Amino acid sequence: MPFARLAAATTPTAHLGLGLAAVGRPGYITLGREADLPPSRSVEALRERTFDLLDAAYASGVRYIDVARSYGRSEEFLAAWLHARSDVRDVVVGSKWGYTYTADWRTDAEGPHEVKDHSVAAYDRQRAETAEVLGDRLDLYQIHSVTPESPALTDKELHARLAGLAAEGVTVGLSVSGPEQAAAIRAALEVTVDGEPLFRTVQATYNLLETSAGPALAEAHDAGLTVLVKEGMANGRLAAPHAPAALREVAEETGLGCDAVALAAPLCEPWAGVVLSGAATSVQLVSNLHATAVDLDTGHLERLAGLVEEPREYWGRRGELPWH
Fold first, then answer.
1. Going by DSSP bridges, is the β-strand pair 140-146/92-97 parallel, antiparallel, or unpaired?
2. What is the CB neighbour count within 10 angstroms for residue 14?
3. Strands, E, within the chain: which ranges?
4. Is 186 helix (H, G, I), strand (E, B) or coil?
5. Whole-prediction pTM
6. What do you get for the CA distance between the two ends of the chain, in Å?
7. Is residue 6 scored above 90 in pLDDT?
8. Sign of the dihedral defined by the CA atoms of residues 152, 65, 67, 274, in that order
9. What are phi and psi of 107, to 5 degrees?
């Protein structure tokens, strides 16, 4: 299993990964992103920024990279970087299918920038697209943003397709989203093919504002799944200058940034396998990676626990964030 390479890594940042959602397309919902990227949002400019981030991440010991079909050209940028750094063979690559990017490289696109489809036809199409771009460098393929009502949890034909992919050596997993993440995770744990569990990883939103998936993630971990944490910065809501007062106070006491403290919190969870940084600049990335140096005591954690929002409130606010 590719995640064994991460478990065997000895660098302090072995449990931190880099997600390319923020730099694989010109528009995204992270607060402050309009100032983080270069004035030109051309393909060439974002490819260069992605290369800078990947170089910095790899030099710092990060070995897991997260992309998706709907993250614009993220797979393409990563594949180009891997080709240019042909000596790099220890990176674990995870991608996702189930959303199609529809904004056509526009920041002012009308309507949604991505469209969800968990059908077998969508899987077949996007799997072929990913294979064309990443070839044999794909280690993990996840269903993107599963919710309890997703047909991906009950479609036997799709399950057979995914089991076939697993037989080829690619790990199969899912990501979840929305206020019922826990229910989606528990439903996924029940999905089997020929009596064997289908999913070997689960990626979920978990941060200081949204912790509702925690118990289900612990169950997934106990069942043998690798847990990946996304949106640890709550799409910028936990970064300065947007960070709530309690987080700013704890950050000041630890001597590190709000972002490092925010990412350190999920790292404290015994079930957390990889916590993703969604940095858009190398400076942000370095600051994020300081999460491994944050020492949160019981008092810190108790104060930070007071930031938790009711899941529907959290996801409602997330849904209102503009695409920058």
1. parallel
2. 18
3. 16-19, 64-66, 92-97, 99-101, 114-116, 140-146, 171-176, 192-193, 196-197, 201-205, 226-230, 274-277
4. helix
5. 0.96
6. 37
7. no
8. positive
9. -90, -15
CB atoms within 10 A of CB 296: 18
Sorted by where each starts, the structural domains of the chain and their CATH numbers stand as 3-319 (3.20.20.100)
Instruction: Report which residue type is found at 309.
Output: E
* Cβ proximity of 269 and 285 under 8 Å: no
Which parts of 139-220 are beta strand (E)? 140-146, 171-176, 192-193, 196-197, 201-205
Contact 27, 103 (CB under 8 A): yes
Report residue 227 as tokens.
């847990």
Tokens of 302: 């108790």
Contact status, residue 92 vs residue 146, Cβ threshold 8 Å? no
| Rg of the chain, C-alpha, whole Å | 18
Altogether, the residues listed in the chain come to a count of 324
Contact between 159 and 165 (Cβ < 8 Å)? no
Q: What three-state secondary structure class fits 16?
A: strand
Residue at 157: amino acid letter: E
What are the tens digits of pLDDT across the range 76-110? 999 999 999 999 999 999 999 999 999 888 888 77
Helix extents (H) in 174-213:
181-189
pLDDT of residue 30: 86
Q: Give the separation between CA 104 and CA 126, rounded to whole angstroms.
A: 17
Centre a 10 Å sphere on the Cβ of residue 302 and count the other Cβ atoms it contains: 9
Residue with tokens 């057979």: 160
Over range 194-210, report the average pLDDT.
98
Q: Which residue has the tokens 């923020």?
A: 22
